[in-house]
Amino acid sequence: MADSSNNNDQKNQNTRFYHPYQDLNVPIQKLYNLPTSPENLFPELGNRTHRSWSENLTYYTGVAYLSGAVAGAATGTVEGLRAAELGDSFKIRVNRILNSGGQRGRRLGNSLGTLGLIFSVTESAIQSLTDRDDMVNSAAAGLVTGALYKAAAGPRSAAIAGVFGGIAAAATVAGKQVLRRYVPI
């Protein structure tokens, strides 16, 4: 027994571990030690406290459209399921579900996407005028967004929509601050 273990030790000492990158002088051990802080191309980008107007435009519009499309498609699908009749074939039922889901998703997605577009432009304009980024700017942007969105329905509808928009924007910012404070991310 001693001879077989001694024999294996000699084989391990005579063989060499295959390392395909040994001639490249690449520190493989450090290859996946990624930095934890954000890396910016320009140092002044690291000092920014908020997104630029174009980033806001893309973010708010995209998130609002996607949220509206998903919520609208879900409600439209439920409507299509409820509208199914007993004598319908499977193809007709699926067609009804897809049509109602697509129609609702398009409508709600476009509506919320428009709200996101107006909000992002308004908030960016207010931030550039006041040189601040706080809850008051977001609430004012929500107020203006609601009023502009419902302006064609009359002044009373515009005022009510403006109040709801301001409250919704302030609640969103407050909720975001609460999440940052109490939820470890």
UniProtKB/TrEMBL annotation:
It holds the Pfam family Tim17. This is Uncharacterized protein. PANTHER family: MITOCHONDRIAL IMPORT INNER MEMBRANE TRANSLOCASE SUBUNIT TIM23-3, TIM23. It comes from the Eukaryota. Keywords: Membrane, Transmembrane, Transmembrane helix. It is a multi-pass membrane protein. It comes from Stylosanthes scabra. It is found in: Membrane.
